[in-house]
Amino acid sequence: MAKFSGNQPIPCRGNGITTSYINRTEVTEFLLMGFSDTLEVQIIHALLFLLLYLAAVMGNLLIIMLTTLDGHLQTPMYFFLRNLSFLDFCYISVTVPKSIVNSLTHNTSISFFGCALQVFFFIDLASTEIAILTVMSYDCYVAICQPLHYEVIMKRRACVKMMVMSWLSGMICGFMHVAATFTLPFCGSNVVHQFFCDIPQLLSLLDSKVIITEIGVMVFITSLVIVCFVSITISYVSIFSTILKIPSKEGRSKTFSTCIPHLLVVTLFMISGSIAYVKPISISASKLDLLLSVFYTVVLPTLNPIIYSLRNKDMKAALRRQRGRLHGDFD
């Protein structure tokens, strides 16, 4: 809720240039929007989110376990996939558990610090995911278009460096968003029209004259996303042109099938996220906003393990080997 600070003046920026000190209401916590005011619907929402969360956690932890323990999966491709699965596990854990608790306790409040922390990790992990997907497209490009140089280019040290840069870039993006948004004065409404602290809805609570810095950050990060998207597009144009030159139909089909999971994840994640963040800021969230946010925060981290393992023969074989070892240990 918003609380008064007594007679102590609170610094609230009256315009984009000067700062005035007046008695205003300072926001110390935010109220997240639930999916419904009806108790039955809230319980259904909590149970549905819980099922999706458990599915996402189990699926991603299974991929992490298989790519860590199985000696046949110690390749750059599965190293990147392991990082992506760990990221998805963290990504869905930032928003969904809090939303489940809010629905079950009928308490939608989140502290100012908690909201800032949620924004940081959400932006950090989303930005890192885009970077990792870009790196994975490059790995696919090298494997298909430059197979003779693959081991030289994709050395373990190079792969680790790319992952470190991906995670660092996400942290920087998260810090920039938090620094630009939460240093601004939230002196009015504290109702966030979303089930988690989302940047577009937080900006709608601020005076349009004081969000120049945050808009600049959004433009900068959007530019980086566009660079990643262009890089992925260039990689896949080269990949598809190389695949079409393969004489055998079976060879083309096999090579193409290795790219489909990654391409599908990239398309779903970038399209849904771009629509949510590029569109104009609105005062209240529409049904489309809610559906998009549920899709890229809940559904995608749940689908990724299925997309990457459903048609992956190596993953299926690794699972059979681990089950065989487990049964052997019990015997």
Tell me what the structure shows.
Keywords: Cell membrane, G-protein coupled receptor, Membrane, Olfaction, Receptor, Sensory transduction, Transducer, Transmembrane, Transmembrane helix. It holds the Pfam family 7tm_4. InterPro entries: GPCR_Rhodpsn, GPCR_Rhodpsn_7TM, Olfact_rcpt, Olfactory_GPCR. It is a multi-pass membrane protein. Residues 59-308 form the G-protein coupled receptors family 1 profile domain. By secondary structure, the chain is mainly alpha-helical. It has a single domain, classed as Rhodopsin 7-helix transmembrane proteins (Rhopdopsin 7-helix transmembrane proteins), CATH 1.20.1070. The protein has 10 helices and 7 strands. It has helices at 39-69, 76-105, 112-145, 150-153, 156-181, 199-203, 212-244, 249-278, 287-309, 313-330; strands at 2-3, 10-12, 20-22, 26-27, 29-32, 109-111, 191-192. It has a 3-stranded mixed beta sheet. A two-stranded antiparallel sheet has the order 1-4. A hairpin with a 7-residue loop joins strand 2 and strand 3. Helix 3 runs antiparallel to helix 8 (249-278). The model is unreliable at 1-24 (pLDDT under 50).
